[in-house]
Amino acid sequence: MPTAATPVSDGPYRRGLRCFRAHAALTFAFAWVPVMYTAFTVDRGFSAAQYLQLWSAYYLAMVSAELPWGWVADRWGQRRLLVLGPLWLGACFVVLGETTDFRACWLLMAATGAGHAMISGADSAYLYELVSGAGRVGEALHEETVAHRWRLFGVSVLDVLGGFVAYAAGTRWAFHLGAAAMLGAALAAARLPPTGRSAGGLGQPSLRGLLHSLSRPGVGRALLWYVAVFVLLRVGFQLYQPTLLARGASDLRLHGLLFGLLNLAAGLAAFGVLAVHRRLGDRGTAVLVLLLVAASFLGLGLAGPALLLPLFCLQQVGFGFLQPVGRTTLNRLIPGEQRASVLSAQSLVARLAFGALLATGLWDAALGSALDQTYLLLAAVAAALAIAFRMLPIRA
Question: Which fold has domain 10-391?
């Protein structure tokens, strides 16, 4: 039987929250993302199909590494991976910024996905253990939401800086800026206090235990909702730059500003997570997010350039809600010794679904001549999913 996690006193608890928020603000600040489409298709001459192959490699590697890293986090400690993951990512960014060969970029994007998998699940599992170890489990959704806001605000700032750096000095320097952010994230994680389970060795994760956790009432529904919203939002994310270019907006400073503004909008939307969840509950919140995503896609498929910004911002509500609601729901439903493994499984299924979609070979038209039709199709899918989740039994 696993022993109880070591209690966290108030001083280390507060320090842990501050360091975790700093880590969250920097770890996902991939400063090159606002200019990624230009970096690969314009600067390096890759085709749209090759560009999607790079992201397929990223998601394939991340999916393959999710459960192994989740097991490592549960067995040896989440905190160690929160330090190692950003260092791995930073090294990948430095090399990726200098490489022009497609095969080398493909391998580096795969390595980036494997590095991202180190912190996927381990971060939310660590935070939940920190909160519960301090006897404040009722604050879990609040702290997950606050950390998510810091994550989005950090990405917002680095997106803006990445766009301006790429405009002034070339897209390669946006990759180097991202590497500097990863170094800061690793330094913040190194100051996180141990929580007992986060230091490793207390739990005994197993495949049988993972499957048992996944079969608990409510877990399947929570997983399905997370996967559905994740895939819809990731498809929408991949359409940002093609949409801007199709509307004649090619200035990389504008791209960086837009990506920064959108992450800021998602962070502001996260302020409403607690109030909405208290009022609507799990089912109502799930349906509302899907309906808002559907409305944004419908507008993008029908409206002109003047409405791009508000419709993009509407879509960010989903980003603001996805992580805190999806992760906290699972943390509440699963035992501590399987926590990072189940959260990694959640991320694995979501990214596997999106990676499979990327590999379909339908993207040349979707990113170009059929852009408006793509948005309308996405709107129909999101609306259908909202209806399905409204009818799905709450304990499914």
Answer: Growth Hormone; Chain: A; (1.20.1250)
